[in-house]
Amino acid sequence: MKQEQKPLYSLTIEEFITLTKKLIEETISGKQGESNESNKDTNTKEEVFNILELATFLRCSKVSIHNYKKLGMPFYRIGRKLLFKKAEVLNFMKTLKHKRIFST
Length: 104
Fold this sequence. Notes:
Elements: H1 13-41, E1 48-49, H2 51-58, H3 62-71, E2 76-78, E3 81-85, H4 86-103
Antiparallel strand pairs: 1-3, 2-3
């Protein structure tokens, strides 16, 4: 003797679509709020340089930038473009300065 399972309530298609959209929007906005809070704790905008901008910032040539890359300066490649984070470059330059002082 099987009992029929009846739904608690029924929704129209429009009500289902509206409810689904609302849930998706709430989920997305909740995740964006979390990621925005975590970004505020770190740096809100991290400065990024290309080779020419970095050469201008460090007051050196582009060839010197490539030499620093060979020495271990961190960089990011996006396609053919090379990008450098300001904080990482400054940290590298500090360690490079200390290495040169102690190696002499």
